[in-house]
Amino acid sequence: MSTSSRKLAVVTGASSGIGAVYADRLAKRGYDLLLVARRGERLQALASTISTAHGVRVETLIADLATEAGQASVEHVLSSNPAVGVLVNNAGIARLAPIAGGPLQDSLSQIALNITALTRLTHAALPGMKSRNDGLIINIASALALHTLPVSSVYSGTKAFVLAFSRGLQQELADTGVKVQVVLPAATATEVWDNSGIPLSALAPESVMKTDDMVDAALRALDQGEDTTMPSVADAEAIERFESARVALFNMGQTGKVAPRLLPR
């Protein structure tokens, strides 16, 4: 990797959609970039556009993060380059269909990309960030981390992992200079819908957020100190109430006793 005096932001799934917008916005904030995705031509075109617009160094790494080889190539950069200051774990896929009768590979590919790659890249980036006591990890989850549809069992499960994983990291890193933000977009106008099984056109237009708007809102939330962000939820206190109820329910279970409603009668 090339060297520069600027910090480096690594963005996965950067060739389009949410990742491409994060790349542009982080470059605007002065970061050099490493853009990671499978589609080399689109990466190169985006790199050229961003470099010209913002005057930063933009490099690309073609990698399929659903594979061992792809994960290993990005892992090496994250663990060996001390310039890495930001990791945006954005790469992900959705296969929205009932489990019964559906291809097993659809489930396994979602797990590999949405869970395994994100976890592995975070493992790779964290030691350097902790040693420098400085860094930022942005994990892109989904509003479906909080709710499951008949067609989203695996997808919701993977995004629930991202949320739980991020919450744990936030607590683990609370007394350090390394920050973790988890973002839970609702429906967003990206290409993820193209192969999801549900076309974007099937959604109510008023329920779909523009990609630029989603990323800009998430970054404003980051600047305001939010560590768990739902860009389309107006009532911030509703998020806090949900979190408080979740913790309270957990604490209620720490009695070591069978609940009276479940005792023999």
Attribute tags:
alpha/beta, 45% helix, Rossmann fold, single chain, 7-stranded parallel sheet, globular, 14% strand, 7 helices, 265 residues
Overview of the molecule:
This protein has 265 residues and is an alpha/beta fold. It has one domain: Rossmann fold. A seven-stranded parallel β-sheet has the order 3-2-1-4-5-6-7, with helices on both faces.
Number of domains: 1
Helix content: 40-55%
Element string (H = helix, E = strand): EHEHEHEHEHEHEH
CATH class: Alpha Beta
Give the name of the CATH architecture: 3-Layer(aba) Sandwich
Topology diagram in text:
Elements: E1 8-12, H1 17-28, E2 32-37, H2 40-54, E3 58-62, H3 68-80, E4 84-89, H4 104-132, E5 135-140, H5 153-172, E6 178-183, H6 211-223, E7 228-229, H7 236-252
Parallel strand pairs: 1-2, 1-4, 2-3, 4-5, 5-6, 6-7
Helix pairs in contact: 1-2, 1-6, 3-4, 4-5
Short description:
Helix 1 (17-28) packs across helix 6.
